[in-house]
Amino acid sequence: MTLTSFGPANRIKRSAETHPLTWRLRDDGEAVWLDEYQAKNGYAAARKAFADMAQDDIVQTVKDAGLKGRGGAGFPTGVKWGLMPKDESINIRYLLCNADEMEPNTWKDRMLMEQLPHLLIEGMLISARALKTYRGYIFLRGEYTTAAKHLNRAVEEAKAAGLLGKNILGSGFDFELFVHTGAGRYICGEETALINSLEGRRANPRSKPPFPAAVGVWGKPTCVNNVETLCNVPAIIADGVDWYKSLAREGSEDMGTKLMGFSGKVKNPGLWELPFGVTARELFEDYAGGMRDGYKLKCWQPGGAGTGFLLPEHLDAQMYAGGIAKVGTRMGTGLAMAVDDSVNMVSLLRNMEQFFARESCGFCTPCRDGLPWSVKLLMAIEKGQGQPGDIETLLGLVGFLGPGKTFCAHAPGAVEPLGSAIKYFRPEFEAGIAPTSAAVPPLARPIVVGA
């Protein structure tokens, strides 16, 4: 895993003033443990929050800073925190860190947990103080075994130093933190499915309302935040709202920095902390180095497999939610994927939809039956056995499975790349339609769900 410095030619050194998430990283890639973390001003923000700030002031500071969720949805963090009940008689509350990170092409949270585990713990400690939560869980993707080992060691270090447990920093505030490894389901990225899984239930999303802030883990008020989101909290508390907002590029409506990256056949695939508002072209050309020799950029996804495809001419879009929305899709996780000119889009989409169909929880009909249907049609088209009307049926499924049509956001994210691929590369899909004079009407084609 690569994390390159801030400058296009690696000339600019990471610093606390410009890289709140990554300035403490070691050059050798090893984890930063407690002594080194504290030597690099670690837990200073927590001490400030406990000694000098009222709990509501912490919430307001995060809200004023404009911090938004970094897991893909981009919901304002301070607003989410403000939904937690104010009733002091509710003394059992939970803070959950969503560390499931199952989105294909995305690995940013893994880097933070493996190399800066105490940054996440400090972010959760401050957040717990603000939200009056007495217990926290890091719900970790089961395959992240190194992250689990490092987080558990960091938790024990923090306990021994009096930074977790009873009467933290002499404040009278108690907070316990546990690392919980999941069983490996993409749907656990949805916060209520994560809660069900943590409780030992099937990982199905829950009906909302009630929202987790009212009825969450074991029926108690619960706040769920992403790893990268929580890792932003210490710097905001330590250095203030104005500084944090100043990090973003002009024109960006999102504040601070973001871990961004590029994968695929680029010369320098990697992960970088960059200001919101940097253009995708700068990310692609100056940091990722452009395509490898012998390959051309065909299209790209801005933030994981659940975001729509964009063309090379869209690279001038700014990397923030509104900037990517202007060119027709979502920023998602900010970890982009380059698709080279040797890739057949039908095969790529068939592979993607197989993944999404397999990872559906199966609760609602559009997702449970619609995604396998798209796979059947794509497999036929890939083999040159598609029938007239199949492309229209696929586009119909994109509509049937779109936002607001399913129980959660899994299916809309699954079909967004499909719709964009047909929009930009329809001839590749048409090439898989077999000529026939006796085509079976698309809606009458037999579909075997789950086959």
Automatic annotation (TrEMBL):
This is NADH-quinone oxidoreductase subunit F. Belongs to the complex I 51 kDa subunit family. NDH-1 shuttles electrons from NADH, via FMN and iron-sulfur (Fe-S) centers, to quinones in the respiratory chain. PROSITE patterns: COMPLEX1_51K_1, COMPLEX1_51K_2. Residues 346-391 form the NADH-ubiquinone oxidoreductase 51kDa subunit iron-sulphur binding domain. Its cofactor is [4Fe-4S] cluster; FMN. Pfam families: Complex1_51K (PF01512), NADH_4Fe-4S (PF10589). Its EC number is 7.1.1.-. It catalyses: a quinone + NADH + 5 H(+)(in) = a quinol + NAD(+) + 4 H(+)(out). The keyword Translocase applies. InterPro entries: NADH-UbQ_OxRdtase_51kDa_CS, NADH-UbQ_OxRdtase_suF, Nuo51_FMN-bd, Nuo51_FMN-bd_sf, Nuop51_4Fe4S-bd, Nuop51_4Fe4S-bd_sf. The lineage of its organism: Bacteria, Pseudomonadati, Pseudomonadota, Gammaproteobacteria, Pseudomonadales. It is an enzyme of class 7 (translocase). Keywords: 4Fe-4S, Flavoprotein, FMN, Iron, Iron-sulfur, Metal-binding, NAD, Quinone, Translocase.
